[in-house]
Design goal:
By secondary structure, this protein is an alpha/beta fold. 40% of the residues lie in helices and 18% in strands.
């Protein structure tokens, strides 16, 4: 599973304005909606599903990274986006640090394998310090897309 398989480039945001967890999730879902990735009528339901998932345990996995995700019947295929917060957001991360990099993933309930492969891919790539550092410094969507393509081509081997 590669980033190119599910990240909607038009939904990538390098300047998240939200200052808290619900705000970040809302802003990223809105970016997917604006990019045509999700039905606007389903946005609130998707936001609620992601926040419900967060109640089970924070998806802030540490080292400035969070991977909020959910399964939702309104999507027909795995979709996702990337968000970068220059200031960082308190996301109840496992290490207590603020989060700067967000990978939001939504998949159909009947495709759990895709969901797991996407999360596995993100987790694997984010173990690479160089990749994370470059992503955090990205100022444009093009910068992020280029880094994701390089990661897809295994140019950041851990």
């Amino acid at each position: 599973m590669k980033f190119a398989d599910f990240v909607i480039r038009e939904a990538i945001r390098t300047d998240l304005k939200a200052e808290d967890k619900p705000g970040v999730i809302r802003e990223m879902v809105k970016s997917l909606e604006e990019a045509g990735g999700i039905d606007p009528a389903e946005s609130e339901s998707i936001i609620k599903a992601i926040l419900k998932r967060e109640e089970l345990g924070s998806t802030g996995i540490g080292r400035g990274v969070a991977v909020p995700h959910t399964k939702h019947p309104s999507v027909t295929r795995l979709i996702g986006t990337v968000g970068i917060s220059q200031e960082g957001v308190d996301f109840d991360s496992l290490d207590g640090e603020k989060v700067h990099l967000f990978f939001l993933v939504i998949s159909p309930p009947d495709r759990p394998g895709d969901h797991l492969r996407a999360l596995e891919n993100i987790s694997l790539k984010l173990r690479n310090e160089t990749f994370c550092r470059f992503l955090k410094q990205s100022k444009t969507t093009e910068d992020v897309v280029q880094l994701l393509e390089e990661a897809d081509n295994n140019q950041f081997n851990s």
